[in-house]
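ok trying this again, last paste got cut off
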Amino acid sequence: MIHIQNLSVQFGGVRALNNLSLTLSAPIIGVIGPNGAGKTTLLNAFSGFVRVSNGSRIQAFGADLLGMLPHARARWGLRRSFQAEQVVDELNVADNMRVMLDGAPMSAAAKQKSLLRALRFVGLEAKAFWPGGELNAFERRMVEIGRALAGNPKIILLDEPGGGLGNMETEALCGVIQRIHAEFGAMTLLIDHDMDLISATCSETMVLDFGTLIAHGPTATVLADPTVQSAYLGDAEIIL
């Protein structure tokens, strides 16, 4: 369970997150909102990549995340992907994923077992020794997710993993995300503009608009909320 209290992030005169307070408990939580709503800033606050205002708190499974340096959060089990994927073309698939295990408090045998488990989970075991530069866009996304799953993840932050994927690839991505909690026990926060992906994977969704939380609850209820509809598309409805 994740407890967020009074989370605020200020960039000069712009408040990117404005006193965000809520409790998250679902296995997969959608994070949606129009461009500039503060979605990526929220993930950056979790990761320790931005300075948060005094009084901000993020507690997860009893741990004080804001009290840890970014590398300590990763060792604890906080993992993420980025909008622009970070696959290194010169490294093979296994080595691209293995880097997450370098500082993990695990034996060499446990690290290898964890790596193989992640490779199998994302369907890349047969391409473990392929250079990253030879992968297609979907496979590169799977490397990113596999890297996040290597080790003992507790929270997975996915920032628009569906960007640039076709319909069949998005469907496959959906299946992978849906299985994360059952296989690894980790909670997932998922940012995406694809409402079909959000609806299919997230039982709970939060909506940000100009850094303010405007809705949070069961996904179907949230997406039908007139305030959410207005924030996204004016008077038009989100088509699900």
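PB: full thing came through this time. Strands lie at 2-11, 14-24, 28-32, 57-60, 63-64, 78-80, 155-159, 187-191, 204-209, 212-218.
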